[in-house]
Amino acid sequence: MSESSSGRHIEIAWPALGITVTAELDGRNEELADALWEALPYRSLQGHALVAGEHLYHVAPIPSLLHVPAQTKIADRRDAPDGTVFLSALQHLGIKYGTLTEPMPAAPVGRIRAQDLPALLEAGRAVWDSVYSTKEPILVEVRKAGTEGGHRIPHLTAADADANRLIHDVHAETERIWLTEPVELAELHRGVIPSGAGSFETVLPTLLFVNGETRPLGYASYGGLVRAAVQDMPMDSLRHMARLLVGVPAEFLGYCGLEPLWAFTQRFLACLDHLDRDDFLAVVSQLALYVNTLGAWNLHLYPWDSGDHLRQHRPAEVGSQS
Predict the structure, then answer these.
(1) Phi, psi of 121 (to 5 degrees)
(2) Radius of gyration (C-alpha) of the chain in whole angstroms
(3) Any idea what DSSP says for residue 68?
(4) What angle do CA 261, 258, 53 make, to 5 degrees?
(5) Which of 98, 78, 64, 80 is nearest to 28 (CA)?
(6) How far is CA 258 from CA 213, 224, 252, 284, in A?
(7) What does the alpha-carbon distance between residue 65 and residue 70 come to, in Å, rounded to a whole number?
(8) Order of strands across the sheet that contains 8-14
(9) What's the pLDDT tens digit per position in 177-235?
(10) Which residues of 194-218 are buried (b: 16+ CB within 10 A; e: fewer)?
């Protein structure tokens, strides 16, 4: 590490909104902050929390986020000041911009400067509209303050020839869909499902199941395999867990239309017995980023406002209706 993260500043911009905010990396969780700093600049699809409240997050193209431990955690992120910037083992950069409802420990790395909080709130509300109703993608750019923006997806490598070809193809596909909706997901959300998945020609249940399988496949299965490999789980156990965790959901998702994902999974499982730890880690890290990208687009494309007629009843309201 060439310099302390404290005093380093990053800009987080939403060009379509004409909004840029500045955050200081304030010395907390130095290793995570370094990983972010070294990955800059990048662009990503901006997402918004759907159950936790006023929180922005996006997939960051930083493989090490999956396994680098946090030295400092806020025990309950609801208590964090507005503008706190977090990095997550779900491969997310998150920003709290208002009230949160979900109690969760979180790893802070910095904070948006006070004068930018009104602009952050404006961005948060616009992104919520994008995710919940308009479906117009909003891209975010993260860069070192005062520098030009840019974009790159890390391309890992493996010594095993089959694994290296797989990594190359997964990287190319991730590049293709990183800032542009995946064709297979766009078709699915338009109701074009070649397999006929969806009982009695329904579409919404299939969309729900696809979202419900893709997110844990990236967050838990591939993220978990990365962490297990880094933490020295025996290779026989890693191979066994990979077969248990990724095949069935990927096959189902392929049936629902995510055929590239299923094809990549079959190639991974076919070369699994030949991989040493380094190659295994490279493959699952590249696949984790790809699957998390699919998950981000799923969350953006899903028609959340189809349930707009359903609203929560607060205890006082329930009592008054009884």
Answers:
(1) -60, -40
(2) 20
(3) P
(4) 95
(5) 80
(6) 11, 22, 9, 18
(7) 10
(8) 42-45, 139-144, 8-14, 19-25, 107-112, 84-88, 92-100, 53-59, 47-48
(9) 999 999 999 999 999 999 999 999 999 999 999 999 999 999 999 999 999 999 999 99
(10) eeebbeeeebeebbeebbebbbbbb
Which tokens belong to 52? 């936790």
Q: What is the pLDDT of residue 226?
A: 98
User: What are the structural domain ranges in the chain?
Assistant: 8-144, 161-306
Helix (H, G, I), strand (E, B) or coil at 90: coil
Strand partners, 31: none
Q: How far is it, in rounded angstroms, from Cα 71 to Cα 91?
A: 17
pLDDT tens digits, residue range 35-49?
A: 999 999 999 999 999
Q: Could you tell me which residues are beta bridge partners of residue 172? A: none
> SS3 string of 201-231?
HCCHHHHHHHHHHHHHHHHHHHHHHHHHHHC
- The residue that leads in pLDDT, 249 or 2, is 249
pLDDT tens digits, one per residue of 124-156: 999 999 999 999 999 999 999 999 999 999 999
CATH code given to domain 8-144:
2.40.100.20
Q: With pLDDT > 70 as the criterion, what percentage of the chain qualifies?
A: 96
Task: For tokens 């009843």, name the residue.
Answer: 313
